[in-house]
Write a structure and sequence with these properties.
Elements: H1 2-11, E1 13-16, E2 23-27, E3 32-36, H2 43-55, E4 67-68, E5 73-78, E6 82-88, H3 93-98, H4 107-122, E7 129-136, E8 141-148, E9 154-155, H5 156-162, H6 167-182, E10 185-186, E11 195-199, E12 205-209, E13 216-217, H7 223-240, H8 250-263, H9 268-276, H10 278-302
Antiparallel strand pairs: 1-2, 2-3, 3-7, 4-5, 5-6, 6-8, 7-8, 9-11, 10-13, 11-12
Helix pairs in contact: 6-8
Length: about 300
C-alpha cells in the first residue's frame, strides 16, 4: 500500500469524491478514475488496462482482457483483483454513427455510478460497481464503466431461448421490475438483455437488473414513466424472440402484469390499457423497425 501511495503522489492526485461516500477520485495525466476505496491500491492496473484498450499494447502481464458480446465488453482477469468488467461508453442510435465514444462531459458516467450504487443498496441489482474512468479529448471526454464480474449468471434472453415460461420465474422478474419502480429508479433501457438470472435450488431464481446507463431517480415515478419502461421490455421481446415463442403469448404477459401489480396496485388502471393496446403497439413497432432498417441500408449504400 505504501508503494502504491508513493506512485500516486508522483503520477496522480487522490481525493475523496464528494458525490459518492466511499469512492475516491484519482487524477492522472492521461485518465481520471472514480473508484471504490477498496480498489485504490490497484488503480494503476486499471489504468494500464484502459491504455491497452486504447493503444493495443499489453502493459501489464497481470491483465488478461478479451472481448465479449458485440466486442463492447471486456473482462479483466488478475490474481490481485479477481475478475472485473470494463465497458466503454458508446452512443446508441443516430448519435452512435456521429459521436461514437465521444461525450461532452463525464456527467453521464458519474450518474450511472450513483444510480448503480443506489440500486445495489436497494437490492435491485447484484452488480457491484467498482467505478468509472474517463480521459479528456480535444473536444469532450471518453469514458469507461468498471464493475465486478457476475459469474454464474445468464441473461433473461438466453434463458428464454431454451426454457418455457414458469409462474415462479415470471413472478420473480415482475417483482424485480416493480421493486425498482417502487424505489423511484427509472431504467430507460429495460430489456431482456439487461435482466440477469441465477438458478438456485429447484425452480427458484435470483434476479438482478443491470446497466443503469442513462437511468434516473425520482422520489416517485409517474405511471406513464413505468408504462414506457414496460413497453421497452416488450420491444426487446419482439425484437429478439421468434414469433412462436411461448414467452410472447398473452397469458405470459397477463401473469407478468398480475405479479407486477401485486407490489404496485396503484398501476392497475394503466396496466389494463397497456395490455389491451399491445397488439397495436406490436404493429407500430414492426412498421417502425422496418423503416429504420430500410433507412440504415440506404445510408449504408450511399457511403
Amino acid at each position: 500500500m505504501a508503494h502504491t501511495t508513493a506512485k500516486l503522489s508522483e503520477m496522480g492526485s487522490e481525493s475523496q469524491f464528494d458525490g459518492l461516500p466511499g469512492f475516491h477520485q484519482i487524477v492522472f495525466p492521461d485518465f481520471t478514475l472514480v473508484v471504490d476505496k477498496e480498489f485504490v491500491p490497484i488503480v494503476e492496473l486499471l489504468r494500464d488496462f484502459l491504455n491497452t484498450l486504447l493503444h493495443g499494447e499489453i502493459r501489464s502481464p497481470e491483465l488478461e482482457p478479451f472481448a465479449s458480446g458485440r466486442g463492447s465488453v471486456y473482462i479483466v482477469r488478475s490474481e490481485r483483483i479477481g475478475e472485473l468488467v470494463v465497458r466503454p461508453y458508446r452512443h446508441g442510435g443516430f448519435l452512435g454513427g456521429i459521436l461514437k465514444t465521444r461525450f461532452f462531459t463525464p456527467r453521464r458516467f458519474i450518474r450511472e455510478l450513483v444510480l448503480t450504487v443506489k440500486a445495489h443498496e436497494f437490492g435491485i441489482t447484484r452488480l457491484v460497481p467498482v467505478g468509472v474512468a474517463f480521459r479528456r479529448l480535444v473536444c469532450g471526454v471518453q469514458g469507461f464503466w468498471i464493475s465486478r464480474h457476475l459469474a454464474g449468471w445468464e441473461t433473461l434472453h438466453t434463458h428464454m431461448e431454451s426454457h418455457p415460461p414458469t409462474r415462479i420465474l415470471i413472478g420473480k422478474v415482475a417483482q424485480a421490475v416493480a421493486q425498482m419502480h417502487q424505489m423511484g429508479i427509472a431504467h430507460v433501457d429495460l430489456t431482456i438483455q439487461n435482466i440477469l438470472l441465477k438458478h438456485k435450488l429447484e425452480s427458484h431464481f435470483e434476479v438482478s437488473i443491470i446497466d443503469f446507463d442513462r437511468a434516473y431517480y425520482r422520489d416517485s415515478l409517474e405511471l406513464r414513466e413505468c408504462a414506457k419502461q414496460l413497453r421497452r421490455l416488450d420491444r426487446s421481446l419482439l425484437k429478439w424472440l421468434p414469433e412462436r415463442s411461448p414467452w410472447r403469448k398473452p397469458v405470459t404477459r397477463l401473469r407478468f402484469a398480475a405479479a407486477y401489480c401485486r407490489l404496485l396496485p396503484q398501476v392497475r388502471p394503466m396496466i389494463k390499457g397497456y395490455i389491451q393496446g399491445f397488439e397495436n403497439y406490436k404493429r407500430g413497432y414492426r412498421l417502425g423497425w422496418g423503416l429504420q432498417t430500410l433507412i440504415g441500408r440506404i445510408m449504408g449504400h450511399s457511403q
